[in-house]
Amino acid sequence: MRSPLLNSLLNPLLNSQSNLIVNLSLVGQKPTGLATYAANLVPKLALPDLTALTPTGLESTLLNGAVQDFSYYPIPANLSAEHGKWGHLRRLLWTQFNLPQIYHDLQSTLLFSPVPEAPLFSRCRAVVMVHDLIPLRFPKWTSPLTPYFQYYVPQVLAQAQHILCNSDATATEIVERFSISAQKVTPIPLAYDVNHFQFLDLPTQPYFMYLGRHDPPKNVQRLVSAFAALRDRHHYELWLVGPVDPRYTPALMAQAEELGVGSQVKCLNYVPYQDLPRLLNGAIALVFPSLWEGFGFPVLEAMACGTPVITSNLSALPEVAGDAAILVNPYQVEEIAAAMHTVMNDGMARSHLRTAGLARARHFRWEKTAEKTAAVLQQFL
Fold first, then answer.
1. Are 211 and 177 members of one domain?
2. Hey, which bits of the chain come out as E strands?
3. Is 209 exposed, middle or buried (0-12, 13-18, 19+ CB in 10 A)?
4. Domain-located, residue 202
5. Which of 51-55, 128-132, 317-321, 377-381 comes out lowest in average pLDDT?
6. Closest C-alpha among 113, 104, 97, 108 to residue 156
7. 238 Cβ contact partners less than 8 Å away, ≥ 6 residues apart
8. 349: part of which helix (H) or strand (E)?
9. pLDDT per position as a tens digit, 88-100
10. Domain that holds residue 218
């Protein structure tokens, strides 16, 4: 039963019609890649009768103040990943039992979900976005994400009107793993905030930078080993930028100590979004040797800052980097170390990577992503 306060917020909407509703329940105060996608895309969707289901308290800040372009519908603010596994569970229950009622109240004809979540066994027509299938490629039997992707996601995809994804690599994996027709899947590359990630022409500082989580598929362990293998590393540091994870971070720091680079490997924890451009601009290179990515925001954001990039030759990362980065086999420590050595000692290579990265990044714009997304959604409205 709704509270009187919530009813007072919702009453203006309950008798209105919204052809399209966008579920932003995953967005929190500390946005990760999935929430970044949603918050940048939705304001640029030029579609009529759009209502954003927005966590309470984020209405004025979440979507760049684009209040005039669509309606907000307040929803609980404790459904995002920053609330841990209980946030995930609350969001799934809310999606299954509350979202169909909202869909009915707003007389909607289509739900767009920026993640592969939608009410099952309901009359809600949905287009969903799949960013990657990493929990199936690297299953952790103690993680709730494994059964989530094994049992819930396939049912969502089977019932969806259409499936969007962020790369050809992800599209191929969806088709092959779930036996879904390729006609039902549309890959649409993502983008970055051009007003935020820019070349600042700062002096290059002697640190390599990694940006992301610390779990095993991110391959930070091999990155630490590669840094330790550099013969001329003594005047350099390796900065690990991303949230500390008690399951993995202590082992990484212990590894650094054992390899004799404990004083040179710095764990910066979660860095506020506004501070990332300066960190990227100052780095001698971003090293992102992930074993698998659905897209790879850090690679694109680093290129947009003119920072040389070393990344994997697997999954969607070559689609993002093109020929503007050094691509390595992420399973080979020697290849990662050789690429880092090149960036350290070859000024012409650094200059080429900077120029090529800036040019490559210009191909990725949220306006293009939104235009292609809107074209798909329009087919089902």
1. no
2. 20-23, 50-55, 71-75, 110-113, 126-130, 162-165, 185-187, 207-211, 237-241, 265-269, 285-288, 309-312, 326-328
3. buried
4. no
5. 51-55
6. 113
7. 207, 208, 209, 210, 223, 224, 227, 261, 264, 265, 266, 287
8. helix 347-361
9. 899 999 999 999 9
10. 207-361
Contact residues for 340 (Cβ-Cβ < 8 A; gap 6+)? 208, 226, 227, 230, 285, 287, 310
Q: 323 vs 174, 346, 363, 366, CA distance in Å?
A: 26, 17, 13, 22
In the predicted structure, residue 61 carries a pLDDT above the cut 50:
yes
Helix then strand then coil, in percent of the chain rounded to 5, is 45, 15, 40
- The Cα–Cα gap between 65 and 146 comes to 36
> Is 55:76 a contact under the CB 8 Å cutoff?
yes
- Looking at the fold, whether 186 and 222 belong to one and the same domain comes out as no
Q: Are residues 181 and 263 in the same domain?
A: no
Find the radius of gyration of the CA atoms of the chain: 21
Order of strands across the sheet with 126-130? Answer: 71-75, 50-55, 20-23, 110-113, 126-130, 162-165, 185-187
What pLDDT score was predicted for residue 175? 98
Considering the domain boundaries, does residue 196 fall inside one?
no
Are residues 137 and 269 part of one domain?
A: no
Mapped onto helix, strand or coil, the DSSP state of residue 261 is coil
Rounded to whole angstroms, the maximal C-alpha distance in the chain is 69
Residues 40 and 169 in one domain: yes
82 three-class SS = helix
| Whole-structure pTM value | 0.89
Alpha carbon distance 132, 294 (integer Å): 4
**CATH number for 49:** 3.40.50.2000
